Amino acid sequence: MNKLRIALATAAAAALGLAALATAPAQAAAQPAFLAASQMPPSSTPWTATQVFAGVPENGGVLCAPYKIPAQNTRYREFSTELDTNGVQITTVARTEADAVKLVDTLRKALAGCGPLLERQNPGLRAVSASHGKLAVEEGAWVYSLDTADPQIGTTDIHLFSVGRDGRTVTLVRWGQMGDFDDAPLTAFKTTTRTAVNKLWT
User: Fold this and answer.
1) 160, 186 in Cβ contact below 8 A?
2) Residue 49 contacts by C-beta under 8 Å, 6 or more apart in sequence?
3) Which residue from 5, 48, 79, 152 has the least number of CB within 10 angstroms?
4) Which residues contact 154 (CB under 8 A, 6 or more apart)?
């Protein structure tokens, strides 16, 4: 795709301390779980998934929300099919739950205003953003779409986004391909979003 597709003291106390040390490595190693390729919306060709990487993708996060997700305590996995359909999941663990709430609000605002922003940045581009409601999963997840058309090069793209939260953990999922909104698997993407949030700490 073009730039649009493209674009985490006492003996009793001593005993407890030893127990804590015994469990500390497992706790320290615990990381939020990611979607598997098979959990992306159905496609006519199979999805493949990369390994999970530390930080944010090279484009700074996600279309319309670049550099809003901090690289620290963040990991991501990218997805693709043979038919130029692609996606990404980015998950970050905030320092506090209040920080996580703030990040969700920031991402939601960026996704809701994505279309107008892209039109200002790219004269001639037609871009329409839409909100598709809140999903009842953990602390909630919100779904958005972005439908773009570039008359100069004759391309159309459709993207679906979601951002959800489980405690201090925020996850963003993106799906995209050539086409328009009629081609988007919105219902299946909502299922993918519920799965992504539910499995973060299962």
Assistant:
1) yes
2) 35, 36, 37, 77, 78, 79
3) 152
4) none
Tens digits of residue pLDDT in 104-143: 999 999 999 999 999 999 999 999 999 999 999 999 999 9
> Two tokens at 119?
């039109």
Report the phi/psi class of residue 15: left, alpha or beta, with left for phi > 0 and alpha for psi in -120 to 50: alpha
Q: Which residue has the tokens 């999805």?
A: 47
4 three-class SS: coil
The DSSP 8-state label assigned to residue 122 in this structure reads: S
* Degrees, nearest 5: CA angle 169-159-166: 15
Is 137:164 a contact under the CB 8 Å cutoff? yes
Sheet strands (E) in the chain: 48-49, 53-54, 74-80, 86-93, 126-135, 141-150, 155-166, 169-178
pTM of the model: 0.85
Whether residue 76 contacts residue 170, with contact meaning beta carbons closer than 8 Å, is answered with no
Q: How far is CA 106 from CA 100, 110, 202, in A?
A: 10, 6, 26
